[in-house]
Amino acid sequence: MTFTPTPTPIPTVPSGGSVDLPGLVELVCALRHCAQLPGLLIRITPELDGNAEAAGSRCDRTPRIGLGTDLLRAPESLPLYGVLAHEIAHHALGHGRPRVFWRDPAWLAKAALLSGVVLRLPVAVLAVLVCLVLAAALAGARRDRLQEYDADAHAVRLLDAAGLPGRRLVTAALADLIDAPPGHRVIGWAFDGHPSARARRRVLATGRPARRLRWALLWQRTPNPAPAPGASCTTCGLRGTEAGVRA
After folding, report:
1. Looking at the chain, which runs of residues are DSSP E strands?
2. For 214, which DSSP code?
3. Half-sphere exposure of 104 (CA within 13 A, CB side)
């Protein structure tokens, strides 16, 4: 299978400040093919302001992305492309998939602590359960932070596969993020599922994965960004063939 990417036209921003939606649809369509997602639902959410989020649904399993209206009104639209690629990368990497509560270590630890309080277990046992709750919270936040780093790196690969300057666009998206206050950098970061903007920019600049235990990388699988075999789309210009997909 061969795929020769051609530069995907970047949506233009008229003088009024609103994004050219047909061009935006073309960009999202190309990124969806590169991420090999079966579908994608984009929802414009005023409550998100200048933020975006990737979400799933237990009903139809359709990947969903929420975009704040401020992202569409930005006078410089480059950050929007990096944000879109980042959220699509979350779905491509399988982040945030809904799972049953009994497979959630944080939920199990809290349930055990609550049961211990109800049963009036000894203080020493309750102290151990409190430590388990804190450990599960710290581990969950650490996992979420690593997913943010991985999504940034995969967003670069998706944009490159679409024929766009991936690193420059993701860097532009991270440049708009506000750095955390000093107090957050001292201790608050440990319970935060999002790394600081400074840390994300630093990791992206190195071009290497974020630091983690070596054995954790054994189970990490990163899909290659390429359109699915035989895919054809008139919106973004992909034409499927028997030998593969060409743009």
Report:
1. 41-45, 52-55, 64-68, 239-240, 245-246
2. G
3. 14
pLDDT at position 185 over 60:
yes
DSSP state of 236: T
- Judge contact between 202 and 70, C-beta under 8 A: no
User: CA dihedral defined by 168, 173, 178, 183, rounded to 10 degrees?
Assistant: -80
Distance CA 201, CA 171 (A): 7
CA–CA dist 65, 146 (Å, integer): 20
The type of residue at 83 is V
The pLDDT value given to residue 38: 83
pTM of the shown model: 0.79
Whether the per-residue pLDDT at 14 is higher than 50: the answer is no
**159-177 burial string, b = 16+ CB within 10 Å, else e?**
bbbbbbbbbebbbbbbebb
Distance from C-alpha of 33 to C-alpha of 234, rounded to nearest angstrom: 12
Spatial contact of 180 and 197, defined as CB atoms under 8 Å apart:
yes
Cα 162 from chain centroid (whole Å): 17
Is residue 118 within a helix (H) or strand (E), and if so which, with residue range? helix 105-118
198 alpha carbon, distance to own chain's centre: 17
Rounded Cα gap, residues 161 and 188, in angstroms: 36
Take residue 195 and report the two structure tokens written for it.
Answer: 């790394």
